[in-house]
Specification:
Elements lengths: L7 E3 L2 E3 L6 E5 L7 H14 L3 E5 L3 H12 L5 E4 L4 H9 L4 E4 L1 H4 L2 H13 L4 E6 L5 H7 L4 H17 L5 E6 L3 H12 L7 E2 L7 H17 L5 E2 L7 H14 L8 E4 L10 H13 L7 E5 L5 H6 L3 E5 L3 E6 L2 E7 L3 H19 L1
Parallel strand pairs: 3-4, 3-10, 4-5, 5-6, 6-7, 7-8, 9-10, 11-12, 12-13
Antiparallel strand pairs: 1-2, 13-14, 14-15
Helix pairs in contact: 1-2, 2-3, 3-5, 6-7, 7-8, 8-9, 9-10, 11-13
């Protein structure tokens, strides 16, 4: 059961209120280079990114938002720290949402100016609190960086914005510690109904970051928490989107795309299963419009049974195997015929779907 948060509109998308969880990523280009940034955003759109965030460290970047916004198709979020003028300039140049930490924006008057500009342009604000920037008094109060301290910091920022009559808020509370992040989101969800942007910040390289993010966000999403999500990786942001889609699909929160299951191999495997599974995954990526399951199994113990539960499957034997469609054996194939046969089946299924539409 999804936690019921209030609805917030970001550009042409709506989050909260039980709407689908949307995937966000962040460009690693220089925002002031509008052409390069647009190019990366279009790549991310193609992979299924729903919302894109860009850094706005200077006024040149803020002004570049206008050109970027004209050439992309998903909501654009401006990430601002320290300088309230950058937040206002980002709003005026077409940002669909801004991300700030009111604690580092400055005086109350500066925060008020940002809130008034956001209200005037009907732009939501994401309040972002990270464990790396938790206030010293809260660290002292809680004896270190804790989930409780992060939640208190976030609630303080929410109060600041609400005191200025601003309610169009999204909240994120991130830590590189998985357990702390999960607890912080659980606690904040009990104290507010604002939509939550979830993530494990600074999770590391893809090898480590995907594991940490999958564990943390898998728990939260299973508990019904999270309205938008980002996998934070040190690497190509395209991988962030691919990972997020797989997490949502594995939890039944998103459809679309081919799911490939394959056995882990053992001494009974008599085909080159590792290579075959990798090739099938690469093939599956080219069929983003299909929502099916393919099983690639390496032996006769569990192979036929697992493959029969998939839409398409290969159950391998000694240099050969069975092609199975929806539980029915279609024919026996030589090992070198596996991949071409799967592709032919996928093309045929796609053609049937297109004709039925």
């Amino acid at each position: 059961m999804r936690s019921k948060t209030r609805e917030i509109r970001i550009g042409d998308r709506v989050i909260g209120g039980g709407n689908p969880v949307l995937i966000q990523s962040m460009c690693n280009t220089k925002t002031e280079n509008a052409g390069e940034t647009v190019h990366q955003i279009l790549q991310l759109e193609k992979e299924g990114c729903d919302i894109i965030r860009v850094a706005v460290p200077n006024m040149e970047a803020a002004h570049a938002l206008r050109e970027i916004r004209k050439n992309i198709h998903i909501p654009l979020v401006a990430d601002i720290h320290f300088d309230y003028r950058l937040a206002i300039a980002s709003i005026e140049n077409g940002a669909d949402k801004i991300r700030i930490n009111p604690g580092n924006i400055g005086s109350a008057e500066k925060i008020r100016a940002v809130a008034e500009a956001a209200k005037e342009h009907h732009i939501p604000v994401r309040i972002g609190v990270n464990s790396g920037s938790l206030e010293k008094d809260l660290i002292q109060k809680y004896g270190g960086v804790t989930a409780e301290g992060l939640v208190e910091s976030a609630c303080d920022k929410i109060k600041i914005m609400r005191d200025f009559g601003y309610e169009n808020l999204v909240i994120s509370i991130k830590s590189s510690d998985v357990v702390m992040s999960v607890k912080a989101y659980e606690l904040i969800s009990e104290r507010t109904d604002f939509p939550l942007h979830i993530g494990i910040t600074e999770s590391g390289t893809p090898e480590n970051g995907i594991v940490k993010s999958s564990v943390g966000m898998g728990i939260l999403l299973h508990e019904g928490l999270g309205d938008t999500m980002r996998i934070s990786l040190t690497g190509d942001p395209v991988r962030e989107v691919v990972c997020a889609k797989r997490i949502l699909k594995s939890l039944g929160l998103r459809k679309g795309g081919i799911e490939v299951i394959s056995c882990p191999t053992c001494g009974r495997t008599e085909i080159d299963l590792i290579s075959l599974a990798e090739q099938v995954e690469k093939l599956a990526v080219t069929y983003k419009d299909m929502d099916i399951k393919i099983a690639v199994m390496g032996c006769v113990v569990n192979g036929p049974g697992e493959a029969s539960e998939a839409d398409l499957g290969i159950a391998g034997g000694k240099g050969e195997g069975l092609l199975i469609r929806k539980g029915q054996i279609i024919r026996k194939l030589k090992e070198e015929e596996f991949l071409p046969a799967l592709k032919a089946e996928l093309d045929a299924m796609r053609n049937v779907n297109e004709k039925s539409e």
